[in-house]
Design goal:
Number of domains: 2
CATH superfamily of the largest domain: FAD/NAD(P)-binding domain
CATH class of the largest domain: Alpha Beta
Structural class: alpha/beta
Largest sheet: 7 strands, mixed
CATH topology of the largest domain: FAD/NAD(P)-binding domain
Number of helices: 15
Oligomer: single chain
Helix content: 25-40%
Radius of gyration: 22 Å
Distance between the termini: 26 Å
CATH architecture of the largest domain: 3-Layer(bba) Sandwich
Shape: globular
Length: about 550
């Protein structure tokens, strides 16, 4: 029986931060369990390598959802990181904090200490922004955030000018005083390498003698004595093991695996646990409920000028880009392909932006369904223009499908269950089409590749949305933070309602989806959670 002060399950975006900050003082012995392996992979370290990690069996859980009725019965592919760094090791690296109103809404739902005034200093402390000092931005923190405006592909300018032509203003910093507007995205890279939660937080901490990181270690159940968590059962190296926690078990396995582990341990809807022969430790109906995700629609165009396709499709271009990256850590392989975008209001009467734009200067329409061939795009020059809704109202759920901890859970996102989501995306698609018709963008377009032909009516756009809309890979909310044990899972200090010695600290606790990419908020949650834990064990 291994003895530790804290056991953290999951070395993802939040788990890496927890491991760093809980071990930093030297007072506590910390065990970090990660089901995946090392992040020392070319496809992790090279920023654009996430195209290869998208389906990589050693780096990725490669989940699929249940058929979604609102999406024409389609199954959605959900890549999730199974590696040190979690999904921060395989994502597109776009760093977006969210809107202040997002976090004020968290606090208004009964979660004191999670409003913008409380979380803004955390965002500032955790980041090292590569550009000049600016209001609200942090420098000197562990996580490097790179401004890629100077190195983005030139065709991004056509997109930004097209947005201006339809009335959207430019915003040089969407993490600055306002999120609204369009510009170049910022990404989590450092010196041409991916800056994941593992490289920023965990790797430096692994030198400490009071932190042990065990990879290829899958947690199978949380142990309890009465209503207090006392340890974790896990499998590593083909052997079943148990680790005991003198202070707390902290579940940081993400929006899919955190509710799964709780349910496997008898914490969740009692009927679900009993249906799979699992003894109920605590009937907590909210575990696995309130699943939220961003959904987007892509329009793919053939360009009449060079795009990244022109560089990355020919083998000579790939070879040159690869050698350039190896020597200088620069060039297109050092970037994300989500190079520009922004936030706008689908209705001017709205109080804040509710839609997000993405512009990628390459296309891979000929890739097999469900794949991303970033390093082998289409032979002709092309680009993607996409839009997603920031605050969807549809709610899904996650439930174990078996008592086998190695079996994937059933994921039902229930996209388009709320009619408001359909209407929002119809309006956003009309804006996307307007941008494409603007003079600066029309001058760069040869023709539309997908959808072909473009739907022109609201009914046609809705049919296309239901047939083609895809996840932006931002699941959250399945262990929701809130004051009501009948619906919520953790309180404002991230303690599981009704149980002792157990917390959940990751994106599953988000009460509501923040606007934009969610990795920054997940890392912030790890930092804020560690503050709460350290204060409770001072």
């Amino acid at each position: 029986m291994e003895q530790w002060d804290f056991i953290i399950v999951g070395a993802g975006s939040a788990g890496c931060v927890l491991a760093d900050r809980l071990s930093a003082c030297g007072r506590f012995r910390v065990l970090l369990l990660e089901a995946g392996g090392s992040d020392r992979s070319l496809w992790v370290r090279m920023p654009i390598g996430y195209g290869q990690a998208f389906h990589h069996p050693r780096l990725n859980w490669r989940y699929s959802t249940e058929p979604v009725a609102g999406a024409g019965g389609r199954v959605s592919y959900w890549p999730r990181g199974r590696v040190l760094g979690g999904s921060s090791a395989i994502n597109a690296m776009v760093f977006v904090r969210g809107q202040p109103e997002d976090f004020d809404a968290w606090e208004a739902r009964g979660n004191p200490g999670w409003g913008w005034d409380a979380v803004r200093p955390v965002f500032e402390r955790m980041e090292d922004f590569s550009a000049a000092p600016a209001p609200l931005r942090g420098q000197g923190g562990p996580l490097t955030v790179t401004d890629m405006s100077a190195s983005a592909h030139p065709i991004c300018e056509a997109f930004l000018a097209g947005c201006e032509a339809v009335g959207l203003r430019r915003n040089p910093d969407m993490n600055g005083p306002t999120q609204e507007g369009v510009g170049h995205y910022q990404i989590t890279t450092r010196n041409g390498l991916r800056a994941s939660a593992a490289t920023a937080f965990l790797r430096p901490a692994m030198r400490r003698p009071n932190l042990r990181v065990v990879t290829h270690a899958q947690a199978t159940a949380i142990r309890f004595e009465g209503r207090c968590a006392t340890g974790v059962d896990y499998v590593a190296g083909g052997r079943r093991r148990t680790a005991q926690a003198a202070r707390e078990v902290i579940v940081a396995a993400g929006a899919v695996n955190s509710p799964q582990l709780l349910q496997l341990s008898g914490v969740g809807p009692a009927g679900l646990c009993r249906a799979h022969g699992i003894e109920v430790v605590h009937d907590l109906p909210g575990v696995g409920r309130n699943l939220q995700d961003h959904l987007c629609i892509d329009y793919i165009y053939r360009a009449n000028r060079p795009t990244l396709n022109s560089v990355l499709r020919p083998w000579r271009g790939r070879l040159s880009a690869g050698l350039g990256w190896l020597v200088t850590r620069g060039g297109p392989l050092a970037l994300s392909v989500n190079q520009a975008g922004g936030f706008f209001r689908s209705d001017p009467a709205r109080s804040r932006p509710n839609m997000q734009l993405y512009f990628s200067p390459l296309s891979y329409v000929r890739a097999a369904p469900g794949t991303r061939r970033l390093l082998l795009p289409d032979p002709e020059p092309g680009f993607l223009l996409s839009v997603s809704n920031c605050h969807p109202q549809s709610r899904g759920h996650i439930a174990i499908a078996s008592a086998d901890p190695f079996a994937p859970p059933a994921i039902q996102p229930d996209y388009f269950a709320a009619r408001a989501d359909v209407e929002e995306l119809i309006g956003a698609t009309l804006m996307l089409q307007r941008i494409a018709r603007s003079a600066p963008m029309a001058a760069a377009i040869d023709r539309l590749l997908l959808p072909e032909p473009a739907p022109t009516t609201r009914e046609g756009i809705e049919a296309d949305l239901r047939a083609r809309a895809v996840t932006v890979y931002h699941p959250c909310g399945t262990c929701r933070m809130g004051p009501d044990p009948a619906a919520d899972v953790v309180d404002a200090r991230l303690r599981v309602h009704g149980l002792g010695g157990l917390r959940v600290v990751d994106a599953s606790i988000f009460p509501l989806l923040p606007a934009g990419n969610t990795n920054a908020a997940a890392i912030m949650t790890g930092w804020r959670g560690s503050d709460l834990i350290l204060a409770d064990h001072a």
